[in-house]
Amino acid sequence: MKLFRYFPVAVDSIAANKMRASLTMLGIIIGVAAVLTILGVGRGASANILDEVASQGTTRLTISPSTESEGEGAGAPVQTLTMGDVRALSDAAFHPDIVEVVPQYGGSIQLVAGSNNKQTRVTGTTADYAEVHRLEMAEGRFLTEDEIAQMSNVIVIGTAVATDLFERTQVVGESVRIDGEPFTVVGVLKESGNAGFGSNDDSGFIPIGAAHGRIFNVPRYRGEYIVTSVSANAVSEERVEAAERQIEQTLRLRHGLGADDDNDFTISTQASLLDTIGTVTNTLTLLLSSIAAISLVVGGIGIMNIMLVSVTERTKEIGLRKALGAHTSDVLLQFLIESLVLTLLGGLIGIAISYGLALLVQRIPNFPIDLLIGVDALVLAVGVSASCGLIFGLYPALRATRLDPIEALRYE
Amino acid sequence: MADSSALVDMHDISKVYQMGETKVHALNGVTLSIEEGEYVAIVGTSGSGKSTLMNIIGLLDSPTEGVFAIRGQRASGLTGRQMADLRNMEIGFVFQQFNLLARTPAWRQVELPLFYANVARSASRKRALEALAQVGLAERADHRPDELSGGQQQRVAIARALVNRPSLLLADEPTGALDTRTGEEVMALFEKLHEEGLTLVIITHDQEIAERAHRVITMRDGVIVSDSDAATTTASGFRNGLSGAAPAPLPRPVAIEQDKEKMYEAV
């Protein structure tokens, strides 16, 4: 194909002006590297978060009371999610797709051990919490059914709490005081490794009965203690939606909501959480990439500028080529392909740089984010830099074709 | 046309340039025909119209009025593309300033017309080297212009003009940028090529160069004032209908064709 014959011509011409060519390409190199790196960081970050969310189970549903107050001047909203709801949801006959229902009542409170104390989020819950939230133990065990039933004064703490209170993590059997009451440490949670999303390093867990009855001054609704949230596990990932419907039905019925009333609770699933996170990271990545893309456009204008200079500088060459029999299309293609080669070369170098960064990041131990560069991003980078070359090269190339050969030959 | 066997045939050619308000008559009714195998010098001072004449013969410019034909093909009916193809195949240009591409080896310069003639790369390299051998620069094929002397550069330009085996070589002040001795070498090369059958048209203001030609056409103020070829005489003579004095074809065309074949086979 004749088109390919222009590539050696373009390469020759670029090689003849190496310094200028590399400065020109710099804009495209930086633009492509910036876009790819930012896309990679965005993707790496979102993959990290999604991994963490997924590691906590994709079958989990979380029910929380609505925080909206009803109507004008309704005052503080009445909290209607109670232990009664938890018992009702635990009835497998009506909720075949739900396997575990775990109430939680949490608050921030001071833990004391000897002369040390620490403000910690303490959650009253049941034995199934560890299963639903995939908790792993470093020391001892989680709360047992017996301890829940007897509202024993036992506590499971995170590693940060253990080290702050005892300066070590082997603390099973030690005693912690909450509001003057002694609690025996029965387990220490495994360190989650980062302070990020879903870490339990800085928390404590006690039997729900103890939290309700003794530690927190918990209000009741229709005679039942309220809870701050309820976690449930669906039987499988496919049945999460069915489980959600079953929960909704039971709670609407129990809360006496009419057909026109909105839910006074919200059910969030891991899937909906993933969706939200995905949307947020995508928006951020798009925003940052758009900013980086501006540098690509600037690079493209640099190409146009240099190609215009090049056309003027090579006026005589263009005249000569026309005298030797070059068609208008020959001249057009020559300059167009020259700018295409410039931008493609710049694009490839930009890709190499962002890949180098990605490899570098992988070698840094404990670096929080991986740089993930996908094939689609590569195609995008190559496509964008090539179209930059074609778009910004078109005007200078057209200028070249419009030169009158006689004038061009006479040009000094 | 008056004589369709002529290589170049011009009839009552005028060229008018619009320079702001005023019109400049660069050519004013020029009639001229050049046969295959001729060795013609067009002389005149600057502004005499000789460059415009060359541009029209070389299909770089088109006349405002009159009929111009090359190899019997009327230029006025040609598209830009066809004109480019004719320049490529039929005409070789040699310029005063050589007009070589910077930083490009000699053989790549010579290859250029073949590139536009769509000759495959392997064949075009071979033909470029042959053309360089023809001008005595076989050894310098890989040298770039800045590694060549002025005379050698002009010979590269001549090889480039020859490589597509044109019928006509147009040289615009080919020795203008050379010293006397190298100028002499270049002229000797031209004359050797002419001996081998090439039609040669040299535009010059140097009377010595002009006198070497077999036919000298002198121009002034856009008209031909003298033509050493008595048969064609002046433009006005032709216009007055002296058809008895119409250009007598040189007796060589067939022989030239054969010579030409031989010439290329030899290299």
From TrEMBL, chain A:
Subcellular location: Cell membrane
Keyword Acyltransferase among UniProt keywords: no
Boundaries of every ABC3 transporter permease C-terminal domain copy: 290-405
Transmembrane helix keyword on record: yes
Residues annotated as transmembrane: 21-42, 286-311, 331-357, 377-398
Keywords, alphabetical: Cell membrane, Membrane, Transmembrane, Transmembrane helix
An example Gene Ontology CC term for this record: plasma membrane
Pfam families registered for this protein in UniProt: FtsX, MacB_PCD
Membrane topology: Multi-pass membrane protein
PANTHER family: ABC TRANSPORTER PERMEASE YTRF, MEMBRANE COMPONENT OF TRANSPORTER-RELATED
Protein name: FtsX-like permease family protein
Organism: Caldilineaceae bacterium SB0675_bin_29
Source taxonomy: Bacteria, Bacillati, Chloroflexota, Caldilineae, Caldilineales
